[in-house]
# Entry
Amino acid sequence: MSHAVTRRIIARLVFLAGLLLMLLGSAFLLGTLADASRGSVLFAFLFVLLGSSFTGLAVWLNKRTLYLFFAAFFLLIGFFLFFLALKIIPLSLSKAWPLFSVFAGFALLPACWHRYGKIRARYVVPATAFILLGGFLLVFSLDVVSFSFAQFIKNWWPLLMALVGLFLVFISLSAKNKTEDIKP
# Structure
């Protein structure tokens, strides 16, 4: 390698190290001011760093859809954990864990937009399912209803079976319509 290329690589590494130290120092400063534990701030910061890394990979590798999903997902988790550590969101992680499913649903939407340039059912259906599942579990986790999830399943399992059957019928009809369109 030439001397100029080596200097350019070293300059980029120094820039990235400086940026990383600035962000980590800012996170710890905010954590110190809010009486948050350094471990929880570091844990949240690692998710933000992981999300930022996937964002860089998505840009560097021609905006791959999978990298965009992971970038959005890890950034949402990182900022959420950071807000929990700073007590901006007054919940415990043991109560708020269903929000990770909601984050996965919301992270699918930018991936869909990148891949197709518009919102498509192929991504919206699972995104909506993740969001609804997270919201449903959040209702039980936050004790919004007076009964437990186990009690709900015990009493309402026939309705869940009927909904799964309805879902399978819709899938079957959708697949049947697509095969009829293919026939000459």
The CA atoms of residues 44 and 78 lie 5 Å apart. Residues 91-143 form one domain. The chain has three domains: 1-89, 91-143, 147-184.
